[in-house]
Amino acid sequence: MDKATDKHRKALQDYKRALDYDRENREAALDDSAFVAGEQWPDDLLAARANRPCMTVNRLPSFIRQVANEIRIKPPAIQVVAMEDADRDLADVQEGLIRSIEAVSSARRAYASAIEDSTRCGMGFLRVMTDYATEDSFDQEARIRHIDNPMSVLMDPDMVDPLGSDAKFAFVLDTMSEQAFREAYPDKSSGMDGDATTEMQSREGWLSDNRVQIAEYWCVEETPVDVLLLEDGTVVDVSEYDAMVEAYNQDADAFQIMATEAQAEAATTGAEPELPDPPQAPPLPAYNADGTPRTRKVKRRKVMSYLMSGGEFLEGPTEWVGSRIPIVPVWGEAYRIGDRTVRTSLIRFAKDSQRMINFWRSASVEALALAPRAPVLITAQQVKGHERDWANAGLDNPAVLVYNETGSGVPTRLMPPTMQAAMFNEAAVAQDDLKATTGIYDAALGARSNETSGKAIMARQREGDISTYAFIDNLMQAVEEIGRILVNIIPRVYDAQRQIRILGPRMETKVLTVNDGGQYDLTRGKYDVVVKAGGAFTTRREEMAEIFQGLMQSVPALAPVIIPRLIDVLDMPDAEEIAQEVRALTGQGQQKQAAPDPKALAQAAKYEAEARQTNFETDLATARIQSAQKM
Q1: Rounded distance, CA 236 to CA 589, Å?
Q2: How many Å apart are CA 247 and CA 240, to the nearest integer?
Q3: Contact partners, residue 550, CB within 8 Å, separation at least 6
Q4: Are 446 and 63 in contact (CB under 8 A)?
Q5: Which of the two residues, 362 and 397, has the higher pLDDT score?
Q6: DSSP-derived 3-state class of residue 503
Q7: How confident is the model at residue 570 (pLDDT cuts 50, 70, 90)?
Q8: What's the distance, CA 99 to chain centroid?
Q9: CA-CA-CA-CA torsion sign (87, 91, 94, 96)
Q10: Which helix (H) or strand (E) holds 23?
């Protein structure tokens, strides 16, 4: 068995292990997705009610939109923090580059789609990719993408970090027709070759109905290495340090030969020998107390990707530029039960309430529909010859019905079924249960509720926000991990001299030349990221405008100061020029007077204090004279 075949067999084992571990969560997530899409009646109940109303009053999408639209209004903002060997300017460049990557990638839509998945079925996924900047360029750029089908992703069940930073493998699945597979990979096996593995592959989803499943297989290869601490604090591989020492020794030998030759030539000519700069020795190792170098064993991670079918690898291996698998999950709520992790969506426990709403609405519609069709008590002789008219009376609504006079009286219509109050009560209870299980009430959905004051409405809205914040917080953590992946790969993707576009906080565009030996060296330094909600400048600008308008209404005297700033933040043409003209008209654009000399201010304050003391003593003497005169 060759190495590729052995690796493929391990990939199939990883796939089966991940699928078996998460099978229950995936089946529940698939049921949640179908339920939100409107498949809310069980098949057996639909068959039993074949000729009866089966209403689907789907209220669940509004609850999902309430959470997801919060991200659309206030998308997360990645902020870069300078760490080792980095400065604030480089961090600002990295942050501006990430903003540009987000803009080109439509990251706001990706983030909102990921949280829609997590609220709808309990899991969503984001990923980082690289692609060529243009068709005729060899420069690559990073991209942020949303994985449209959350059911297509399988993660390592042994990972501890919920963000997947320690995952050893992952799969992203897709399917294609057998004919398309043959055209794309004519020399590759799909697994439909009739061998012993075909039955297993069909059972596990690799083959089904003349369709072939293919998968991106991501795996981490770890290599143990010894690292060495140097005196200057640098940490290098022992093998790398040995190579540095060997290179220095060679340079030193070459320098010694050149120095000897230069001195011999100088002795002949009588001129000063011209010697090059001697090579610089590498830093010495740091030593333990016992005199041994400070070393330790670590595992170097290398991330590889393959494209595979159930039969063999189709493409790869390809090495990823980062140090972790670039797929980040956005989970819903999670509960740990022994060795199992149960993941739930926002609507998982609201489905029963939604079913009850559908049932009671269907029952009420059925009762109303049957009211005009109340049965009629009649004999066979009375309708003889008119059977068809009486049979269609409930459908055609005729103005006249003819019956035969038989002496048994007039046909009698029974009382129609009455609408029971319990039916409406149960429907109302089901609606309340729906709000209670999601934690989102009428005020949060923008509907009128029993709250009357503004504070009460805001309190109920805040209650809904807190109840669903776990979903938003999980997305924020995922976006923060996306930021860490980006700062990890930027020095490798943007490693050559090139021009890049960065975006400022106000989304202003700037083009910089990086890695040209100047100020902007993206390969230097280490960075971390933090994420803030509501980071989009457009949103902040709207909020600032509302605050400025409120200040002017409360304190009109501030209008001359606030109006230019209000114009600055408004999304209108020539806003900056108009604000400058307003400042000029109000005198704010005039040059400020130079600040007075601090010594002069101190002297003036001294004179003022002495004057106040003199006045106080004079007033005191006057008061005493007046008091003595009165006595």
Answers
A1: 57
A2: 11
A3: none
A4: no
A5: 362
A6: strand
A7: low
A8: 14
A9: negative
A10: helix 23-36
* Cβ-based neighbour number of residue 244 at 10 Å: 15
Residue 315: partners with Cβ closer than 8 Å, 6 or more residues away: 306, 307
In angstroms, rounded to a whole number, what is the distance separating the alpha carbons of residues 401 and 189? 74
Which two structure tokens, joined as six digits, stand for 298? 């670590």
Asked whether the predicted pLDDT for residue 448 surpasses 60, the reply is: no
Angular region, 149: left φ>0, alpha ψ -120 to 50, beta rest: beta
Alpha carbons 157 and 162: distance in angstroms, whole number: 10
pLDDT for the residue numbered 374:
66
Identify the residue whose tokens are 């280490």: 526
- CA 445, 447, 449, 451 torsion: positive or negative? positive
Q: Is 54 exposed, middle or buried (0-12, 13-18, 19+ CB in 10 A)?
A: middle
32: nearest Cα among 159, 120, 123, 141: 120
Extract the tokens encoding 452. Answer: 């009357």
Q: Give pTM, 2 decimals.
A: 0.72
Q: DSSP E strands: which ranges in 137-268? A: 140-146, 153-155, 169-177, 207-208, 211-229, 235-237
In 3D space, the residue among 547, 441, 484 whose CA is nearest the CA of residue 325 turns out to be 484
What's the CA gap between 172 and 150, in Å, rounded? 9
153-166 pLDDT per residue, tens:
999 999 999 999 99
Q: Is 534 left (phi over 0), alpha (psi -120 to 50) or beta?
A: left
Closest by CA to 348, choosing from 151, 64, 152, is: 64
